[in-house]
Amino acid sequence: MLFVASPEGELVHSNDALREALDVASEEGATLAELAHPEDRAALLEAWARLQQAHGLVSFRARLRDVNGGYLDLLCRVQPSSDRSRVFGSLRIPPDGGAPGSTELRLKARILDALAEHLDDVVLWALDGDATCVYHEGKGLAQGGLRPGQFLGASWFELFASDPGSDAAGIRAWFDGTVRRFPSESHGVYWDNWIIPMRGEPGEPAGGVLGVSLDISKFKRAEVELREQVQQIEAQQRVIRDLSTPIIEVWDGVLTLPMVGTVDSVRTADVMDSLLSKIVEKQARYAILDLTGVEVVDTRVASHLVELVTAIRLLGADGIVAGIKPNVAHTMVALGLDLSQLNTQRNLRAALSYAIRNMTRAEGAPHAGGAARGGSTTS
Question: What does the alpha-carbon distance between residue 288 and residue 348 come to, in Å, rounded to a whole number?
Fold first, then answer.
């Protein structure tokens, strides 16, 4: 049954099949809404209003008054003309023939349409068993530069054949009855996709799939911005740590590490890594830990300092701890640590004098011994 209607729904032309089936001859200028069952009239008007915003085919189901005064359960498909001055439509008996349960199916269709119409950032689409698009609606289509119903009747395989990121085998796998979830990106829009199987009735071919695509672009951008901020904070923290624990080569073979403020376990671990690396790099013989600016250390840090001095000794250098405050000394003693091998000096000046004096003595000792032996031979 075919008809042409005005944008307001008034029947302008109809073919013989429609006039023989529906009660249109008794009313001049009848509208589909007037022919609709009272319970279906609101849904028909809602679908017709949706047609005014659509550029493609709109389908709906309604009971229309027949020539005998009863009602026929019909599937209606309508599409506006290019200039939107006319609406072309067709009516036919649905595949289930108006069988029991058709009202429930119409209710489910209305629910699906309502979700697509009112949920932001959502696209609902459905494919039949041959991967042909049979539903394509949602407010989220605009973000991707698409319009409702744009892909109706299109094969998903042909539609994405030119897409280098498409996978025909992956699309075929959607129909194995498994719920799937995967991300995708198209034209700068990021989607979170759900593939939900629609099983066929017993004895019928396997059903298609329902696709739910959520636009997560704003969350993706927020994630990228947050990751960049975290990286920036980590870089700033590295700079702060480097500035707070600078390793200075004050003499050839002598490194000093002045520590100021609160010393915690994280900072001590960073100091150990950087200082040991610098000792190897500079081939240092002495490493001075200057604790003059440190007011408080906890028990764990005190233990780390002893371990650090031991590690320095293992590298062939001598670790010197200078400027220990009374309360820090009390903490280290209270731990019961073995401090007998710990080389300590009153302050940084004393530590530098100690290191330089020992280096000078070590370098001059062989020459002095040689001179003594030479003098003994001369006499």
Answer: 8
Domains of the chain are: 1-106 (3.30.450.20), 119-217 (3.30.450.20), 245-372 (3.30.750.24)
Query: What stretches in the chain show pLDDT beneath 50?
Result: 99-101, 203-205, 367-379
Name the DSSP class of 36. Answer: B
Burial string for 270-306 (b: 16+ CB within 10 Å, else e) reads bbbebbbebbeebebbbbbbbbeebeebeeebbbbbb
For the chain, what is the mean pLDDT? Answer: 80
Neighbours of 188 (CB within 10 A): 9
Q: How far apart are CA 369 and CA 216, in angstroms?
A: 80
Q: Is the pTM of this model over 0.70?
A: no
Read off the amino acid at residue 217: S
- 349 token code pair: 């000046």
Gap between the Cα atoms of 21 and 165, Å rounded: 50
pLDDT at 318: 92
pLDDT for 376 equals 35
- Give the model confidence (pLDDT) of 66-93 as tens digits: 887 788 888 888 888 888 888 888 888 8
Give, in order, the Cα–Cα distances in Å from 361 to each of 239, 341, 367, 369: 38, 21, 10, 12
Q: How far apart are CA 5 and CA 256, in angstroms?
A: 92
Q: How far apart are CA 222 and CA 228, in angstroms?
A: 10
Residue 113: its H or E element: helix 102-118
